[in-house]
Design brief:
Blueprint: H1 3-30, H2 33-38, H3 42-47, H4 53-87, E1 91-93, E2 101-105, E3 108-115, H5 123-141, E4 148-155, E5 163-164, E6 169-172, H6 174-181, H7 186-189, H8 191-194, H9 198-224, H10 233-241, H11 246-252
Parallel strand pairs: 3-4, 4-6
Antiparallel strand pairs: 1-2, 2-3, 5-6
Helix pairs in contact: 1-4, 1-9, 4-9
Amino acid sequence: MDKATRKLIQRYVSDNIDSFHMNRVSRLKKLTLPQVLKQKNPYLFRARNITLASDLISALLDARLSSSEEGSFGGFLEDLAIYVAEITGGGHKSAAEGIDIELIRKSVRYLIAVKSGKNWGNSSQHAALKRNFKTAVKVLKQSHHARVLQPTLGVCYGDFKTSNNGEFLHIGGQSFWYLISGDENLYIDLIEPLGHEAQKHDEAFKAEKDNVYNRLTREFTVSYCNRSGKIDWFKLVRYVSGNLTAKEIQRMSK
């Protein structure tokens, strides 16, 4: 890869990582107590013998943020992969459903669905991906410009070996970035621009996280601690899981 192209990629990463961090803080500010309570398992936290409201909120908040950031950053990596494929030549954003990149390498037209990590989706999503590949291949084969078509699942990180199950090529990590860029070292070179002003962003995020932590702890204490200060687990479980109405009880008992 020439220096000019490498600089374009580094600039793209530096510019867009700022947006990732700003969105990270924005989502954090909007978090509410119901959001962090409803999506986590109260039985698990009770089994861990958590007795401090502050400890419970800390565990809930960290779990919520971890899953949220993983998804958000995954989207950033997928957009980066599309950009890399476009500026290194031969690649463009696909119009086919479920396909992110169409890329030509050595007379092979790769139909690439990009995922940030290998542990993505459920069985229904995996089945949908296979259907999308089949549909895209069928449509493109009708074109007079059709080449050898290779459905490909491209994963942004992971050291697993490239494989082909007969339905699609499964490629990831260094091999994936090499396929879309032609540069065997790009997967390493991406790390440096990702750290653009990371300390400043982290300090801003931590300050806001402390505010949210204090706010949610106060709200939780008021709503789910009894007069003696203990967590009212019965009330908490009823809030998270209670959904049986008197009519339903009557109907089910017949």
